[in-house]
Amino acid sequence: MNEPIRLEIHDGVAVVTLDTAGEKVNILNAAFLGAMENIARDLVSRQDLAAAVVISAKHGGFIAGADIHEIESVIDADAGAKLARQGQRIFGLWAALPFPVVAALHGHCLGGGTEFALACHCRIATPDAVIALPEVRLGILPGFGGTQRLPRLISIEKALDIILTGRNVHAEEALTLGLIDRLAPAGGLLDEAVVLAREAALDASHLRAARKRHQRILRHWLLEKNPIGRALLFGEAHKRAVERAEGHYPGPPAIVEVVRRGLSMPIEQGLELEAKELGRLIVTEVSKNLVHLFFLSQRPKKGAPVTAEPTKVARAAVLGAGVMGGGISQLLAARGVPVLLKDIRSEAVAAGLAQAREMFGRQLAKKDGDEAKVAAKMALITGTTSYDGFEGIDLVIEAVVEKMGVKQSVLRETEAHMSAAAIFATNTSALSVSELQSVAQHPARVGGMHFFNPVDRMPLVEIIRGEQTDERTVATLFDTALRLGKTPVVVADRPGFLVNRLLVAYLNEACLAAGEGIEWQSLDRLAREFGLPMGPFRLIDEVGIDIAAEVGRTLCSAFPWLPESPLLAEAEASRLKGKKGGEGFYLYPVDGKPQPNPAIGEKLKLPGKRQAQEADLRRLLLLMINEAGRCLEEVVVAAPEDIDTGMVFGAGFPPFRGGLCRWADSEGLVKLVGELAELASNHGDRFVPCAWLKGRERFYAG
């Protein structure tokens, strides 16, 4: 049996190579941790060693973190604490070795991998290294020593930021923070790590002095080196953590408290505090739901649910240089894909290029990027008003105005300049891909890629399979979305596809409820308390009242069980636009937060007789559940996993609830079906439980 760790001795320096056989990455599962313990005990017994270097043979990086399946399997708090103590004990063996140990980092160093690197005495990294403690995203905290070792190595303020956000720390920032001791060239990591190890073996004092220099700033001394300043720091951190948690996520406040208390005691006691808190958090429903979402986010990486192999997109083109087109172009260039950005007007092209440049500037500024890096990325985008060069394009993404006639005209015109093998994708939120295909010369190579706005921040992309779309096209669009860092889900060509179909049903029902006399602001408030990023009326404003009204008409026409609320048509007729017009259900001052529009009730003749109750919000959510069942019944998507993926990553359904279907299962699907039947007797056929739901106990049936 191949061991996941190899040990070689070179002139008194142990070189420990992490290399799990048959796997793309090193994962801290039980077997790997056992091997780490064995190597540490072997090293401590040797008398001929001056230092050790730990390096990974994996191309992708150092250690990708703990085995999430093992986290998922923990259902007892004591077992969770025991798991943490095991990792702490093994890493403690490395920390206690009588000679310096250097962690040589490249690529990803995540979670438990970062905690192991912190247990080592020195760290060196290549410029591509990315270090993170993302446990907070799983509803837990770093349990192998991260909450105790990181704030003892770098400033408490920076340590809390890294642990509470779970963000990536790139190598240059890590050096500035004192998280790593040195940078190494990509091709010389091992050699430089051995040099550092030998230097540390001779005299480690200069390394400690260098780390202290990173912390010698006034703010550090004022806040962290005296009791009053430290109390203020932790007080502010706790306040922000509570705000971030919004009463739904227990992890952030727990992290602040474990760091605060742990720093006031010996590290051994701090580690025990960390272990107990890990045990408490790991069994919460929030953690289990966030682990569920993690697996959903990884699921697309297995590939599209088709048999064909994707075509690699080497060059792309985007038609339409508006907000969506400019954003898609920037996204392609950010991933190294040369792209032509075409519009019929040169001023539109210029605006699209300016938008892309601004987005690059914002993104690279976070990574200490300079104008040269922005220019290098922008060199991949070529603005044009002609079809010159389209014969060499592999993928054309159309992002013109949302009108079928215009899109069909653009497709006809563009196909004349594309190669026979190229793929045409429409970025549509509601229009039929099959209808678009009806005018295509090569309909099999026409599909949909529905990006969500804003393109650079929204993770989801719906891959729409028209009636004639072939498997290779689906596979290529799916693979391209993955390359762009998105989470794709394949959907059938039905009105509204998946996300908009469920959202419009929800928004339309909110408008019907408001028309019946439920005060709209209270409904928005309940939605936020449930965990949604905004209430239905604030979301309508964000989408645009005119767009929401148009899509509502389209979907209510397509699905006769959905009665169209007159409220949005009346708001549209009143020339209310929502956020883009500065006025809708809310007012949007140039400076300041949105405020409820005091004139909206009179303008739209809203009765507002009573405050919304929990049952009113459940009415909206239950209608979405019924539509989710219909989507599975009609095979709009293949599985409940697709619905949860779409609703969390595309619609902002509360992550801590795990997704719409996951939440329905936690509530009890049998109970919800009964509630639907009762709602049907009061509000109509749209609530009659669909055939897919009847007789089922769970969405996730096994």
What does this structure look like?
The chain has about 700 residues and is α/β, with parallel strands linked by helices. The protein has three domains: about 5-290, 2-enoyl-CoA Hydratase, Chain A, domain 1 (Alpha-Beta Complex), CATH 3.90.226; about 315-495, Rossmann fold; about 500-685, N-(1-d-carboxylethyl)-l-norvaline Dehydrogenase, domain 2. It has 30 helices and 20 strands. An eight-stranded mixed beta sheet has the order 13-12-11-14-15-16-17-18, sandwiched between helices. A six-stranded mixed beta sheet has the order 1-2-3-5-7-10, sandwiched between helices. Helix 15 (about 325-335) crosses helix 16 (about 345-365) and helix 21 (about 500-515) packs across helix 23 (about 535-545). The longest helix has 20 residues, at about 345-365. The radius of gyration is 28 Å and the shape is globular.
Report the uncertain regions: none
Distance between the termini: 34 Å
Beta-sheet strand percentage? Answer: 5-15%
Overall SS class = alpha/beta
CATH superfamily of the largest domain: 2-enoyl-CoA Hydratase, Chain A, domain 1
Approximate shape: globular
Q: Please report the number of helical segments.
A: 30
Q: What is the name of the CATH class of the largest domain?
A: Alpha Beta
Fraction of residues in helices? Answer: 40-55%
Radius of gyration, CA atoms, in whole angstroms:
28 Å
Characterize the largest beta sheet: strand count, sense, and whether it forms a barrel: 8 strands, mixed
In CATH, the topology of the largest domain is named 2-enoyl-CoA Hydratase, Chain A, domain 1
